[in-house]
Amino acid sequence: MLSLLVLISGGGSNLRSLLEASEDAEYPARVVAIGADRDADGLGLGEEFGIPTFAVNYGSYPDRAAWGDALLEQIRIWQPDLVILSGLMRLLPPRVVAALSPNLINTHPAYLPEFPGAHGVRDALAAGATQTGASIIVVDGGVDAGPIIAQERVAIEAGDSEAALHERIKLVERRLLVQAVLDIANGHVNLKEHSPA
């Protein structure tokens, strides 16, 4: 059974999909803890699904490195097989990435390497693209630059708002994430083969 620790910043819609999938006894992964970099709404899913939660508030630390060290300390308590960044809107310090990779994956609302960064949906619209997508990657030292595990295209429709497009992407992201975790748990995806150079 693959043990998962999921890090969030917001409502945790991808996290909910994982929690619902893991309620199936046949699904070979379980979320052991949920963490956040703030008092995120998605931490409420912990109570709903009976999963321990923690917050390492970024604003409580003098810099990103100190915050990362505190976050890593919390993660290590749970000894997860896989750490998932699911809407965590903060770059992990290099020391944290080095400690966890390649067992550290991220969801991103674009068809990487197109539109990396915090505003992938907005950037796709601003570029006048006709399609974007969703990607699951192994986290490396770059910004959304790690090896791609899974991705799928999403069409951009005429008149799409950022919110409407993001909702359609999230549907794909959730499905890809649940499948990627299944593939990792079943050995169909070997993260060591996807390890950043």
From TrEMBL:
Is Transferase one of the keywords UniProt gives this record? yes
Site residues (Raises pKa of active site His), renumbered to this chain = D144
Please give the superkingdom of this protein's source. Answer: Bacteria
Q: Which reaction does it catalyse?
A: N(1)-(5-phospho-beta-D-ribosyl)glycinamide + (6R)-10-formyltetrahydrofolate = N(2)-formyl-N(1)-(5-phospho-beta-D-ribosyl)glycinamide + (6S)-5,6,7,8-tetrahydrofolate + H(+)
> PANTHER family attached here?
PHOSPHORIBOSYLGLYCINAMIDE FORMYLTRANSFERASE
Query: What is the protein's known function?
Result: Catalyzes the transfer of a formyl group from 10-formyltetrahydrofolate to 5-phospho-ribosyl-glycinamide (GAR), producing 5-phospho-ribosyl-N-formylglycinamide (FGAR) and tetrahydrofolate.
Q: What is this protein called?
A: Phosphoribosylglycinamide formyltransferase
